[in-house]
Amino acid sequence: MTGPGGGEPVGRFLAGDPSALRELYDLHGRAVFGFALRCLRSHHDAEDVTQQVFVRAWRGRAGFDPARGRIGAWLMGIARHQIADRLSARARDTDIAARAARSPMQLPPRGVPDRVVEAVVVADELNRLPAQQRTVVRLAFFDDLTHQQIASLTGLPLGTVKSHLRRGLERLRRRWEEADGVAPRS
């Protein structure tokens, strides 16, 4: 090969000839890999970096000026940047793993998932009650109204409000016990 740019494959490489990239890999791939392996001490990481170097070289070939230096030196410059990026990523991963190992596992407070499940079950069971019982139970427990206030609001007699509330609660209790596998009380 002649000239500061490394000769004829460099010209074809700069012109976008993929076969020239293969030739440059054959000429410089071992040197790039060896450099990466010495720095990273990982065969796998060195292979990845070597591949990244040649991919970046191909994509950034317009940035190479043969008058400023040899292509091998340019490839090694790309390799240095890729190695630095890999080492930074390793340090970041190590730091994250160390912090995760030091911090206690954050679990939701005891009973929170159970309360959510219970709320869903209660809402479902409420929807199964007859309309008037459902309305009375919701007004009593969710709106915190007295029996008299419910009677005034719904127009139902006070005794009927009390009956709907008692029957609705009994039905909810039975359904709850059936769901838990507990024999209903007589």
TrEMBL record:
One short Pfam name that applies is Sigma70_r2
GO molecular function, a single term: sigma factor activity
Q: Does the keyword Aminoacyl-tRNA synthetase apply?
A: no
Q: Which domain of life is it from?
A: Bacteria
- Give all residue intervals belonging to the RNA polymerase sigma-70 region domain: 24-92
Give the record's keywords alphabetically: DNA-binding, Sigma factor, Transcription, Transcription regulation
Where's the RNA polymerase sigma factor 70 region 4 type domain?
A: 124-172
Q: Does the keyword Calcium apply?
A: no
Q: Which SUPFAM superfamilies match?
A: Sigma2 domain of RNA polymerase sigma factors (SSF88946), Sigma3 and sigma4 domains of RNA polymerase sigma factors (SSF88659)
Listed GO biological process terms: DNA-templated transcription initiation; response to stress
To which protein family does this belong?
A: Belongs to the sigma-70 factor family. ECF subfamily.
Name of the protein this chain belongs to = RNA polymerase sigma factor
